[in-house]
Amino acid sequence: MNRVLRLALATLLVAPLLSPLAAQSLVDEGRALFDKGQYATARARFESAAAANARDAVARYWWGRALLAEDKTGPAAERFEQAIAIDGGKAEYHFWAGNAYGAEAQRANRFRQALLARRVKAAFERAVALNPTLIDARSGLMGYYLFAPGFMGGSLPKAKEQAIALMALDPFLGREGLANVAMKQDDLAGAERELATLLRDFPDSGRAVTVLGNFYADHARPADALRVFEQWVAKHPKDPLGYYGIGRTAAVTGQQLDRGVAALQMARALPPAADESVRIEPATITYRLGMIHEKAGRMAEAKAAYAEVLKLEPGHKGAREGLKRVS
Predict the structure, then answer these.
(1) Are 115 and 136 in contact (CB under 8 A)?
(2) What is the pLDDT of residues 300-314, one digit of tens each?
(3) What domains does the chain contain, in order, with CATH numbers?
């Protein structure tokens, strides 16, 4: 007996303890708590609602969402599977199952990763088939095709198809996707064209300026990167994003190191960026400071910076490697 059927049958043995209206009220309460970030309390509401009704797919779906928010990836996947077993026609259920499988794969061994990767692909494909306008599902599927190896179903032509489809639904995500496809194809001129168009079409987007500026920095074009970030600073002098971009450019390229330090210190002193999609964590700023100090030969300062990063974010791989280099 497969796991999904076993879970569904086990659920059927739970006797309803609440009326349908009371169970719905629990789901509504849970969603309100979920929106406030109170995931454990929300989860308890969803679990009670599910126990009261063996056919309540919505309660199981939100139960899975709460578990995933708590980073309980395996149990979350099981709840999404239960919801799908009850009502397999909801694209959102399949999409979030795919997210749970993907998160679970990050901590699995190599053999299980391959199995989970196939489940991610199938879940995202099913979500898109059920609802072609579900932006998150198309974006997830595009990312899968873009980054998965060919033997796991990765495909640049299919990634491009999804990016083109996204253009009609979300022009920002679609054009960014086309740029990523071009980069994977080593078409740097095409990638630059797409990213420059993205910033032209969305001139007040922190993410648009970040991806273009970082593209230039990462491809040894510091002057172009600095130009992009300087223009942002001129328009948004109290936003840390532009200063961080200048500092990152110095850290990556090894150019204008002292200016990079000053820019990163400014980024650290300012309130968080208004654009939450490019929010810069203190550990990230400090890591770039460590890189600059290392490039400048200031090993004691680099060592202190990397150590500080690891206090803020113990799992930071770059800081851990940097600390080994300078110690």
Answers:
(1) no
(2) 999 999 999 999 999
(3) 1-131 (1.25.40.10)
